[in-house]
């Protein structure tokens, strides 16, 4: 899997996922909290299948080695 999620987008995804989990916990909504795992996982892996499907790449590394 080649990196297609940049560092700024990674941080935004993880924060959005944590927010969804927090809102789901506040309102006692397990499905909403479960949906919050998706942006966290895509942010941590730095690969998103939706970005890959539409050809969007915010990762500025040309080698695809996750910015290392």
Automatic annotation (TrEMBL):
Superkingdom of origin organism: Bacteria
Domain Inner membrane protein YgaP-like transmembrane per the UniProt entry, residue ranges: 1-62
Upper classification of the organism: Bacteria, Pseudomonadati, Bacteroidota, Cytophagia, Cytophagales
Name of the protein: Inner membrane protein YgaP-like transmembrane domain-containing protein
Pfam families for the chain: YgaP-like_TM
InterPro entries linked to this entry: YgaP-like_TM
């Amino acid at each position: 899997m080649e990196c297609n999620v940049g560092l700024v987008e990674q941080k935004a995804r993880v924060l959005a996922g944590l927010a969804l989990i927090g809102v789901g916990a506040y309102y006692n909504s397990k499905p909403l909290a479960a949906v919050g795992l998706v942006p966290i996982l895509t942010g941590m892996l730095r690969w998103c299948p939706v970005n890959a499907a539409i050809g969007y790449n915010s990762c500025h590394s040309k080698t695809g080695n996750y910015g290392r």
